[in-house]
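re: ur question from earlier - yeah i can do the single chain one, its not a big deal. heres the input i used so u can compare w yours
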Amino acid sequence: MKASVLAFAILAFALPASGLHSSGAWGASGPSFDCAKAASGAEELVCTDPSLAALDRELADAYKQALAAAAAGADKATALPLLRATQRGWIKGRDDCWKAADGLKPCVEQAYRDRIADLQAQWMLVPGGEPHFYRCDDNSEIVATFMQTDPSTARLERGDTTKIVLQGRSGSGARYLGDFGTEFWIKGREARVVWGRSQPPFTCRTRE
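and the output i got, formated as tokens:
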């Protein structure tokens, strides 16, 4: 999918988790942004749908925690701009949900759930299970940590690169998908891996 986007982006970066009602009064039932300034059909929908407004507040809280984690890291000069850029990209993708074949609300809802899970996994905001170590055909190693998110996510570490993949539909096994064509498809002790669109697939197996 995953108007003035800038106005929403500034609010998303600056406001705490509990946002403004459309009336402009602070409260716990509206989204994290001022509904009087809703700049897209997706934002207007969020302002009228309590379940989506709750997801928006949850995302605002996760984003606030991610910003704090990025600011506390040694590479904050790189991490903070990248985090803000990906959030702006997510906003654009959410606002493009009017194009979705299955309708605006399902697309917006899934966009929020996926982004919340991605932030929680990327910045370790929720617990993860024990790491699983995979040896790969190309002599690399992948460390997979499965995070307690909804939808389920896996945090993949390979060399100095970390990727977050979200569980998708699969006829067999557990298939996780990420940005730029990343795929981690587990069947038993093996995993079929695509690390990016420009790279050929390879196979990894859990260590003995």
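The longest helix spans residues 50-72. not sure if urs matches, ping me
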